[in-house]
Design brief:
By secondary structure, the chain is an alpha/beta fold. The protein has a single domain, classed as 3-Layer(aba) Sandwich (Glycerol-3-phosphate (1)-acyltransferase), CATH 3.40.1130. Helix content is about 45%, strand content about 15%. Strands 1-7-6-2-5-3-4 form a seven-stranded mixed β-sheet, with helices on both faces. The protein is globular. The N and C termini lie far apart (about 35 Å).
């Protein structure tokens, strides 16, 4: 049974790769060619949301994973929020964007050279390791347009039992944009697609992903008083760490 599941997972990711190539080299260039500038991001987001949602449903129908979203009502009509989450597995971003429309994410510039995702990243993602001022400006513009931005503050997938170390980019983005933060905790009941783990290392049963939507972090509360910008950033980061490390008690 485990061998069969490994084969199914490999097939699904081969399918994902083929789909990404089609979007990267055909769909996005077509959108770019025949869409007005102000329509492009909306159409890019729609394509990625719907295709990743479809891929997640394929994984569920193939009995590879199950996805449970707790407090899903907090995602209804979500707009102009910075979404932060822990990052235990490779498909975390696929699960989140598949579940939340009108959402982009922050990525590393190396992905711009990826054969599968390069054009998608250049067209839709924010790049976090280039010019910080440009990143902040683009963040503010995107949030004002009503899109959400997913940030993994750890920067990379975290290892089991490893202390959670966060970069301060999400807090910095929130301070400059004054957008509220939606913290999300992602957990799975079996180590799957984790850092340094083979893609075919599947369990002998479906792996359950639990996505817990926690209460929003209201940024206005941190911008009051006499805190310096560094103190504001550090305090916001502490709350982010606390929220994404634990599930909601609601």
């Amino acid at each position: 049974m485990k061998l069969l599941r490994s084969f199914v997972v490999l097939f699904l990711f081969a399918f994902f790769g083929c789909g990404a190539i089609i979007i990267n080299y055909f769909v996005f260039p077509f959108i770019s060619l025949f869409s007005k500038q102000e329509e492009k991001r909306k159409r890019y987001c729609c394509v990625v949301h719907k295709t990743w949602k479809f891929f997640c449903s394929m994984m569920e129908k193939a009995n590879s994973i199950k996805v449970e979203i707790k407090n899903s009502e907090k995602l209804k009509n979500l707009s102009g929020k910075i979404i932060v989450a822990n990052h235990p597995s490779f498909i975390d971003i696929v699960l989140l964007i598949g579940a939340i429309p009108n959402t982009v994410c922050v990525a590393k510039k190396d992905l711009k050279k990826n054969i599968f995702m390069g054009n998608i990243v250049k067209s839709l993602y924010l790049i976090n390791d280039e010019n910080t001022d440009d990143l902040i400006k683009e963040t503010i513009d995107i949030l004002k347009e009503g899109y959400n931005i997913v940030v993994f503050p750890s920067g990379t997938r975290t290892l089991e039992n490893e202390p959670l170390k966060l970069h301060k980019g999400a807090a910095l983005m929130a301070i400059h944009s004054q957008a509220d933060i939606l913290p999300i905790n992602i957990s799975c009941d079996y180590k799957f697609l984790a850092k340094h783990q083979k893609i075919y290392d599947a369990s002998d049963r479906p792996i359950t992903y639990t996505i817990t939507i926690n209460d929003e972090i209201k940024i206005a509360e941190f911008l009051q008083g006499n805190l310096t910008s560094i103190q504001q950033r550090n305090r916001i980061n502490e709350v982010i760490k606390e929220k994404i490390s634990a599930v909601s008690k609601n």
